[in-house]
Amino acid sequence: MKGKTQRFYDKNPKAAAKKKAYDTKFEKKPSQVAKRKELIKVQRKRNIYGKMGGFDLAHTASGLVKKKASVNRGSKSDQPGDKRARGRKKK
Asked: With CB atoms 3.0 to 4.6 Å apart as the test, which of 42, 78, 85, 90 could cross-link to 60 if both were Cys?
């Protein structure tokens, strides 16, 4: 089943093209290239490169940890920046 965001982009091809252009530009940034390079290096060292099977390496306070890709979408507790970016818990 498609999520809300995917349904939006299916209905709005101009918005999808704009997002694709932004994502392409973002992924070319030296910081993003370096991040991917670092993750690949760690995956090769752990002999898991290409064998992740639905898992990602998450940047946590305790270093890089293997997490399910569906769970690795930001955390309120792993990094201080996450806490500030996500705001407070709603009551």
From this structure: 78
Any domain includes 22:
yes
pLDDT at 12 over 90: yes
H or E segment to which residue 64 belongs: strand 63-68
Domain range for residue 36?
A: 13-72
List C-alpha distances in Å: 14 to 4, 21, 67: 17, 11, 34
**Is 42 inside any structural domain?**
yes
**Which residue, among 58, 25, 53, 30, has the nearest Cα to 42 in the 3D structure?**
58
Residue-wise pLDDT tens digits, 17-27 = 999 999 999 99
Name the pTM for this structure.
0.60
Within 8 A by CB and 6+ apart from 26, the residues are: 32
Whole-number Å distance between alpha carbons of 37 and 40: 5
